[in-house]
């Protein structure tokens, strides 16, 4: 194998290795954007819910706010769980997290369910970050 010299990256093969270019590509940001959005909405909701406590932040507005925090990270997990169940794989990380999120919703309320799913997303991403 011949070494290919790239000004920003040294590749060990003659393929067009673009690993260094991928570090700044939009796809990397696209991967983390759902967690960032969810975390921002969750944090703003928790601050509003437990410290600021405005009169309008109750009922449907509060539910809608935490659903916005939940959707970017929750829907892909629900989709993966549903696809796994269709393949008769009932016991996997996705179904476990859907059940855990439902339990958090019932036990801690709306904010707990959204929090558990943001934690799930971070749990899924950290190993991929460490392996790079």
Give a verbal description of the structure.
- This protein has about 130 residues and is mainly alpha-helical.
- The chain contains five helices and two strands; from the N terminus they run ββααααα.
- The protein has a two-stranded antiparallel sheet.
- β1 and β2 form a beta hairpin.
- α3 (about 60-85) runs antiparallel to α4 (about 95-110).
- About 15% of the residues are buried.
- Residues about 1-5 have low confidence and may be disordered.
Query: Per the principal axes of the C-alpha atoms, what is the gross shape?
Result: globular
Largest sheet, strands/sense/barrel = 2 strands, antiparallel
Mean pLDDT: 76
Low-confidence stretches: 1-6
Structural class: mainly alpha
Distance between the termini: 23 Å
Indicate the radius of gyration in whole angstroms.
Answer: 20 Å
The tally of beta strands, per DSSP, is 2
> How many helical stretches?
5
**Beta fraction:** under 5%
Series of H and E elements: EEHHHHH
| Largest sheet, spatial ordering of strands | 1-2
Q: What percentage of residues falls in helices of 4 or more residues?
A: over 70%
């Amino acid at each position: 194998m011949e070494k290919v010299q790239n000004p920003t990256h040294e590749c060990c093969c003659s393929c067009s290795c673009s690993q260094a270019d991928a570090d700044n590509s939009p796809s990397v940001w696209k991967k983390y954007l759902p967690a960032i959005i969810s975390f921002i909405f969750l944090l703003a909701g928790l601050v509003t819910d437990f410290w600021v406590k405005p009169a309008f932040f109750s009922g449907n507005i509060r539910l809608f706010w935490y659903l916005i925090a939940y959707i970017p990270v929750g829907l892909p997990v629900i989709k993966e769980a549903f696809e796994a169940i269709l393949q008769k794989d009932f016991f996997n990380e996705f179904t476990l997290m859907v059940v855990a999120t439902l339990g958090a919703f019932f036990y801690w309320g709306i904010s707990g369910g959204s929090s558990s799913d943001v934690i799930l997303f971070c749990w899924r991403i950290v190993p991929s970050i460490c392996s790079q």
